[in-house]
Write a structure and sequence with these properties.
Number of domains: 1
Low-confidence stretches: none
Mean pLDDT: 96
CATH superfamily: NAD(P)-binding Rossmann-like Domain
Radius of gyration: 17 Å
Number of strands: 7
CATH class: Alpha Beta
Largest sheet: 7 strands, parallel
Order of helices and strands: EHEEEHEHHEHHHE
Strand order of the largest sheet: 3-2-1-4-5-6-7
Distance between the termini: 55 Å
Number of helices: 7
CATH topology: Rossmann fold
Structural class: alpha/beta
Length: 215
């Protein structure tokens, strides 16, 4: 299938692109940075998802909305408005099968930077709107909401023993997900899944469920 992955140059986006390539799908990456992925099944477009001059891509079957920023001063412009623009351009095509949005656990808990949490919460709400519209052509739309993920974006806390200890105290499974694990979920909800739509899947190693019972 023809798959478009935004934010494919690093982290979760790169892992998702590589997962689809591994499964012999044709992947088109969109990122403001160049990519290190080398594969006959991969092509890369250097572009900003907020641009009004996005390239034409016909016949998109799977769209992975992963590109985003954190505490940048323009989180809503990129994470929400940019994602809406990409989705409206590429998802509503005759061959579309599925769309997945990479949101965040903070969309549920609010426990991050204010504008970032708001942008991801808006993304989940928009996902449900997309799911209702795509249902008319039998396509699905869902979102994944990761908690902590072991990517370079999170080095600040991963490499700080005291901060990492505090994080693990709030995380029942005492670990974070890898980018490759999130990629497995993305592949499942877009390729294997045929009946789940308009759902947000929380992948946070139990952090949001953590409850300290005192008796």
């Amino acid at each position: 299938m023809k798959v478009v992955v935004t934010g494919s140059s690093s982290g979760i986006g790169k892992a998702i692109a590589e997962k689809f390539i591994e499964q012999n799908h044709d992947v088109i990456g969109i990122d403001i940075l160049p990519s290190s992925i080398i594969s006959p099944n991969y092509s890369h477009i250097v572009a900003d998802i907020c641009s009004d001059k996005l390239p034409e891509i016909d016949g998109v079957e799977i769209l992975v909305n992963n590109a985003g920023v954190q505490d940048s001063g323009k989180d809503i412009d990129v994470n929400l408005k940019g994602t809406i623009q990409i989705t409206e351009k590429y998802a509503f095509q005759n061959r579309i099968k599925s769309v997945v949005f990479i949101a965040s656990a903070s969309a549920r808990t609010g426990a991050e930077f204010p504008e970032y949490a708001a942008s991801k919460g808006g993304m989940v709400a928009y996902m449900k709107n997309v799911a209702l519209r795509l249902a008319e052509c039998g396509a699905t739309a869902n979102s994944l909401s990761p908690g902590g993920v072991t990517t370079d974006l999170n080095r600040r806390v991963m490499d700080n023993p005291d901060l990492w200890r505090q994080i693990m105290e709030e995380t029942p499974l005492k670990k974070w997900a890898t980018a490759e694990e999130i990629a497995e979920f993305a592949y499942f909800v877009t390729v294997i899944n045929k009946s789940m739509t308009a759902e947000d899947i929380l992948i946070d190693n139990g952090e949001a469920a953590n409850a300290k019972f005192v008796w």
